[in-house]
Write a structure and sequence with these properties.
three-stranded antiparallel β-sheet; single chain; alpha+beta; 15% strand
Length: 66
């Protein structure tokens, strides 16, 4: 099955495993690019992939392994 060129915020949330609220935070902060078609908000697959790739990996996240 071919991947979508663009998707809605709820579809993007399902695809990447983040909540819609978190994606909207990324949109507001400018970390996730969107496209608009009328009132519809679309996220390009490549832009979602870029966001996920930019998230910190476990070794870069603070914490104590004990």
């Amino acid at each position: 099955m071919a991947r979508p060129m663009a998707m809605s915020v709820p579809q993007a949330a399902i695809l990447c495993g983040l909540s819609r609220a978190k994606l909207y935070q990324f949109i507001r902060s400018g970390q996730l690019k969107i496209r608009k078609c009328g009132s519809r908000t679309l996220i390009r697959y490549e832009d979602l992939q870029e966001l996920v790739d930019s998230l910190p990996s476990p070794q870069n996240v603070g914490g104590n392994d004990g």
